[in-house]
Write a structure and sequence with these properties.
two-stranded antiparallel sheet; 450 residues; single chain
């Protein structure tokens, strides 16, 4: 069998009985985090843009899928564009390596269950299938493709979306394989938007969901799809990673090295790679105790320092620029404390901007990913070092911690507490609660224009 055939069989055969209890529980945490963060994104401007585009393309569809936080229905692809932009609005979604699969799969599965009446009982297996397929390829090839300018979320997210939708629809192994092969042929997305501080990345996740859905629908309709989609001479591995594909190694990992277990959550509305620098800067802020700073050096792994936009010092005019910038995020935290959306969108804070210019980013291969060393020199010559070593475990929250996180954001953004009650009931038991609980949670939000 080829790799896509092995993965097709895995996706088709995945059920709750084959998923370890701890993996099921992590999937529930991912589900709660995805919906809960999306509730707190309702004031952000990206979903209204996507909603307007969706309505312009497909119009309102009474039998379609709901644009969450808006209430109107449109086509499923239109709802995916709108809802993924909502889920991505704070940049505080879950992260699997460098990919944000929750923003892609959860809106997709929600729309399919709502509009087609597909069973909630298959939601968790479908979600896990997507994390496993997308995560398998992201962890293998992301260290190559990301430095090359390809964004992990759309590149690997289309694969995750295809796996999730194929599993939810109950496709057999052959058709699941075809769906994954199609997705491998349709995927892509670059990182230039982070360098320029623009918004394309907000909409890439919705496009990945749409491409994954199209891949599945074509497979369901009988498409002939490449058996060598991943390891072939012109397949995914060689085309995107310029690498050979170790089929045996990948087959050994699928369904045993559970990718969902390395999914992390974000305590702050900044890039995943800035979570540790902000954590360290909060600790350093306490040590500095308001004394003036002369310069700051930040040592981090080259994979993170080389990511588009991470070394930017401004001037900034968008949150797409500030949330990526390591110097800005550290400067803001040292001077103003825990970053908020309001602070991240204040581009004219002269003190923060001046300190940002005095923060130097240093690539250091001895520093592991998700760790950093912040070296501060005070105006009086005192040196203070914050050695912040963190791992996936530090950001892999249980459901109780996720609940606290999303409710804290809800307090900041005016989300009714009852909305979170509904989401928690659904994450605990999707079958008993029903997708209506999710729809009602988002219906409780203030309606946004567009």
């Amino acid at each position: 069998m080829t790799l896509v055939q092995t993965l097709g069989a895995f996706v088709a055969g995945l059920d709750m009985g084959r998923i370890p209890a701890e993996v099921q529980e992590k999937a529930r945490a991912c589900l709660l985090n995805g919906y809960g963060i999306a509730l707190g994104c309702h004031p952000t401007p990206y979903a209204p843009v996507a909603r307007a585009a969706a309505i312009a393309m497909d119009g309102e569809r009474p039998d379609g899928a709901t644009m969450l936080g808006d209430g109107r229905k449109t086509s499923i692809p239109g709802a995916l564009l709108a809802n993924s932009a909502l889920f991505h609005g704070r940049a505080q979604e879950d992260t699997c390596g460098a990919a944000h699969f929750g923003t892609i799969m959860i809106p997709l599965l929600t729309a399919l269950i709502e509009s087609r009446g597909l069973p909630e009982s298959q939601l968790l297996p479908a979600l896990v299938a997507g994390y496993e397929v997308g995560g398998l390829f992201e962890s293998t090839y992301g260290p190559i493709t990301t430095p090359g300018g390809l964004r992990a979320s759309p590149l690997y997210g289309a694969l995750a979306a295809a796996a999730a939708a194929a599993r939810l629809m109950g496709l057999d192994a052959d058709r699941c394989a075809a769906a994954l092969a199609n997705a491998a042929a349709f995927t892509g997305g670059n990182l230039q938007c982070f360098t320029d501080g623009t918004d394309e990345w907000r909409y890439q996740v919705g496009m990945a969901a749409r491409n994954g859905l199209a891949a599945v629908e074509l497979a369901r309709a009988g498409s002939r799809s490449a058996p060598g989609a991943f390891e072939g001479k012109a397949g995914f591995a060689r085309a995107y990673a310029r690498s050979d594909c170790d089929v045996a190694a990948l087959e050994k990992r699928i369904g045993t090295d559970w990718s969902v277990m390395r999914v992390t959550f974000k305590p702050f509305p900044v890039c995943a790679f800035n979570q540790t620098p902000v954590t360290g800067a909060l600790q350093l802020r306490e040590k500095i105790a308001g004394r003036p700073l002369k310069r700051v050096a930040v040592r981090m792994n080259p994979f993170e320092t080389g990511y588009a936009g991470m070394d930017a010092k401004g001037p900034f005019d968008s949150i797409s620029g500030t949330l990526m910038s390591i110097p800005f995020c550290i400067a803001l935290t040292l001077l103003r404390g825990t970053p908020s959306m309001a602070a991240m969108t204040t581009y004219t804070d002269a003190e923060v901007n001046a300190l940002t210019d005095r923060i130097d980013l240093i690539s250091d291969e001895s520093i592991a990913i998700l760790s950093c060393v912040i070296e501060a020199e005070l105006a009086d010559g005192t040196q203070i070092v914050q050695d912040q070593r963190m791992t996936v475990v530090d950001f892999s929250y249980d459901r109780a911690t996720v609940s606290s996180l999303i409710r804290r954001i809800g307090d900041e953004t005016g989300v009714p507490s009852q909305a979170y009650d509904r989401l928690e009931a659904f994450a605990d038991d999707p079958v008993r609660a029903g997708i209506g609980q999710v729809l009602q949670a988002f219906a409780a939000l203030p309606r946004a224009a567009g």
